[in-house]
């Protein structure tokens, strides 16, 4: 009696462990599809920026802090009379655990009256900040000569970021808080 009971417990434990392994493998296989479902647009943007950093540096990063800001405005264009563009600028300030800073600037423009397909602009630029040792650790100094990587060597990168954040908030940027850092880390 005791022997069959312990065998049943072992079988149940093995089934549970097998199910957990199956769930982990399934998650890893469909991680990008699940990210499209569970992440909002801001989280997807941050995830894409993390991918850019990892692609540029050929190493995975661990996010320490994120600050995200947005500015919406309209402007008239000289291409067509009475045409207005709805514009959105998004700025992301990202800090890694080993103090590499990255600043991403995304600009989106949509025509309000013309064909959306032909008058849509979505452009992202970015720059890395860090001291010389950090930039060397991430191979940014070596790659910047061969590509379009931009960087600023600074011993006060944190102060630079804080000054940039203060400046953009003075120019009307609003902080975006509808993102979850743990979801971004999970799907990155």
Please explain how this structure is put together.
- The mean pLDDT is 84.
- The protein has helices at residues 2-29, 31-38, 41-57, 132-137, 140-143, 157-170, 181-187, and strands at 63-76, 84-96, 101-111, 120-130, 151-153, 174-175.
- It contains seven helices and six strands, in the order αααββββααβαβα.
- The chain is extended.
- It has 188 residues and is an alpha+beta fold.
What can be said about this structure in brief?
With 188 residues, the chain is an alpha+beta fold. Helices cover 45% and strands 29% of the residues.
Please name the defining characteristics of this protein.
188 residues, alpha+beta, 7 helices
Strand content bin: 25-35%
Task: Tell me, briefly, the overall form.
Answer: extended
Number of strands: 6
- Read across the widest sheet, the strand sequence of neighbours is 5-4-3-2-1-6
What is the H/E string?
HHHEEEEHHEHEH
Number of helices: 7
Q: Pairing-aware structural class of the strands and helices?
A: alpha+beta
What integer is the average pLDDT? 84
Distance between the termini: 49 Å
